[in-house]
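Good morning,

Attaching, inline, the backbone tokens for the sequence recovery test we're adding to the shared suite. The designed sequence is right after.
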């Protein structure tokens, strides 16, 4: 019993998560809610090769190629069950993907897309919090829903797309 007593008195006090403040108490209430991850976008220099990798090598369900002239891209979606990958390829010389691929010759992660329940309320509140939005108004994105992009310098180096759920 002497050893047990020494172990019990020598044991450090451990704070459990339940006894500390819950995470939700630190989050201010918003007029809009952040939803699920919709997709991760990858810029690719060769769209057909990328489609083939996901479809033929990895066995994923891959959509047809869709041109989005307003965004200057071709898009292809790869279904992953709980989310999607969006393969992006330049459409026209002024495509933002062209400049991305000039810096990243083999392609790479371009942005993440998160759903929101009220894109207009999100825009208003994010502007108040000094988060730069890359357009004055939402544009219609690849899923036919309004989207906005948040400046990567305000989002820890990540280009964030918000899509109306």
């Amino acid at each position: 019993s002497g050893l047990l007593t020494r172990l019990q008195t020598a044991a450090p006090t451990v704070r459990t998560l339940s006894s500390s403040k819950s995470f939700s108490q630190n989050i201010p209430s918003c007029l809009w809610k952040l939803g699920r991850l919709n997709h991760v976008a990858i810029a690719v220099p060769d769209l057909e090769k990328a489609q083939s990798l996901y479809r033929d090598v990895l066995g994923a369900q891959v959509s047809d190629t869709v041109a989005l002239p307003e965004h200057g891209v071709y898009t292809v979606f790869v279904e992953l069950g709980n989310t999607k990958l969006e393969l992006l390829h330049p459409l026209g010389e002024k495509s933002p993907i062209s400049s991305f691929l000039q810096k990243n010759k083999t392609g790479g992660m371009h942005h993440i897309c998160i759903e929101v329940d009220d894109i207009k309320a999100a825009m208003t509140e994010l502007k108040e919090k000094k988060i730069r939005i890359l357009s004055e108004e939402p544009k219609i994105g690849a899923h036919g829903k309004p989207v906005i992009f948040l400046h990567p310098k305000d989002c820890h180096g990540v280009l964030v797309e918000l899509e109306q759920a």
